[in-house]
Amino acid sequence: MSEFKFCPVCAASLVMRADVGEAGKLRLACPEGHWTHWDNPLPVLAALVEVDGKMLLARNAAWGEGRFALITGFMERDETPEQGIAREIKEETNLDAQQVTLIGVYEFMRKNELIIAYHVKASGEIRLSEELLEYRLVAPPDLRPWPAGTGYAVADWMKARGLAVQFVEFAGSSTPLVSVAQH
Predict the structure, then answer these.
(1) Can you say whether residue 182 is alpha, beta or left, with left for phi > 0 and alpha for psi between -120 and 50 degrees?
(2) Is 0.85 topped by the overall pTM?
């Protein structure tokens, strides 16, 4: 369940404790009451990056062939979400964010994340970090969102522009999974 085994305050072995104030929700905690692991969702930043009218999708080095998605990353201390996504785009693609617009906020329960998604108009020469293997530039009508996490952000962005949305099994796939009416 967690990487925590000992209380960081007193070094006691952690136990599962029912939180009375929250209808008995179980949480990993110090038996002496010094510390509780809340396991709250982690905020993740995501960008649907637009370069010269096309949308940039990238393949992470850890992913299989044909799997492309948005640029994502974590905020750092003392930066706003907008500054964070601009930094992530620069670090991962070498592009400069010119205009950053919120698309929306999306749950990704499978990874206990809360995704803050942006549409970012960017410019510059694309040079990928070692974290990414390849990229595609896709015309907006040709985007095929995936039915999870950042895929819902892509679908919402497309719908706001009057574009037809067709969900696929995974980013870069051409196999339809669900219709837009099901989202």
Answers:
(1) alpha
(2) no
